[in-house]
Amino acid sequence: MEFPADPTTPSGALLARIRPEIRAQKAYTVASDTDGLAKLDQNESPYDLPAALKREIVDAALEHAWNRYPQDRPRQLTATLAAHLGLTPEHLIVGHGSNELTHTLGLCFLRAGTPVVLPHPMFSLYEAVARMHGADIVSVDPQPDLTHAPDTIISAAQRADAALTVVTTPSNPTGKALAYADLARIARSVPGMLVVDEAYHEFVDGQTAIDLLEAHPNVLVMRTFSKAMGLAGLRLGYLAGHPRLVHELQKSRLPFVVDHLAEAAGLAVLARPDLIAERVTALKEGYAELLAGVRALGLTAHESAANFFLVKSPIAPADLRQQMAKRGVRIRDVSGYRALPGYVRLSVGMPEENRACLDALAAVLAATGQANNQADGNGTASETVAVSAGS
Question: The domain containing residue 60 runs over which residues?
């Protein structure tokens, strides 16, 4: 049965019953044909959990009756995570990935006309959720180096009397981070809630937004088990905030969203901080090598505080993505962000994946006649960044 757009037809009238804010959006879809490819396009950890640890997790899940619901909330994981963070369980909501928790924010804070401050470029789901609820988006432009000035964010939030101000640090897709002092200044200056997305916080040293919670009850911190912790396939994330606020947010939550297997995996990973630290160190080393290798090819690359970075494509980004895939490497075309025309994003992989990426890039440059057109061969890494910042 076809559904024409014309609402005067019976079938078209069915579509018209779906809220226009939803119909105006595009579904978030990601290509999954990645067999045999170096997968450097989704910022995941390239390291799977050790087989023995995965078996331990499965065995823990097998101890539960699978014909019975899990607890309405993953209470053991919440308590363990709270102790890990120096908080109480009442500070936390554990969900089915931080993406799912983003919809909780929309449900609780947004309605038609609600002002929301979103610095761009930013992970696109925040804007999508805001638009689904009819919110008014106040966009904050980046500086030439793709960072965001705290004063600009604060001014935008104050002018709009924003109910929500969202910052991501390090930010996806740029990898740029806000200093802790700047986060604190934004927290005490914005009129409404400050949501701080710290999906990649493990790659940054020093204080984090969790340290803001005691002094700033308007702060909500979003984190995930999908990146450094390597659990993207099991979907776990969490939100931290003032207990009174979290109590209200819990009212919007669906029960049973975290299953036995995911909770067992979260507990197992939290019990092995040395494993996570070891992998973060390996990814930082891989980042440095991959960044240096890209620059050695004469390409412009931005420094990042996370496990990925931006590269100015020597050809149309969609063409580069396609050419790299033909050579066994998957990368992300981010040129759809209005601040990033001509850019692609590379995630750090395992050493052999990083080498495959550099080999594929070199082959594409040679095949497209770009090998000698990217740099004069005398520029330092810092000079390359300066060129990028001004482009």
Answer: 51-272
The reply to whether 21 falls in a domain is no
- Name the residue type at position 37: L
* Same domain as 348, residue 307: yes
Q: Output the pLDDT for position 385.
A: 31
Can you tell me whether residue 332 is helix, strand or coil?
strand
Is residue 3 situated within a structural domain?
no
Closest CA to 316 of 337, 334, 296, 298: 334
Interval 274-285: pLDDT, tens:
999 999 999 999
C-beta of residue 342 within 8 angstroms of C-beta of residue 313: yes
| Nearest partner of 102 among 118, 86, 82, judged by Cα | 118
Give the predicted TM-score (pTM) of the model. Answer: 0.90
Which H/E stretch holds residue 53?
helix 51-62
Q: Is 335 helix (H, G, I), strand (E, B) or coil?
A: coil
- What is the tens place of the pLDDT at every residue in 325-356? 999 999 999 999 999 999 999 999 999 999 99
Residue 62 belongs to some domain of the structure: yes
How many structural domains compose the chain? 2
- C-beta atoms surrounding 11 within 10 Å: 12
Question: What is the 3 state secondary structure string of 74-98?
Answer: CHHHHHHHHHHHCCCHHHEEEECCH
Residues 349 and 219 in one domain: no
The token duo for 315 is 């050809």
Q: At what angle do helices 273-296 and 260-270 cross, to 10 degrees?
A: 80
Residues of the chain with pLDDT under 50: 375-391
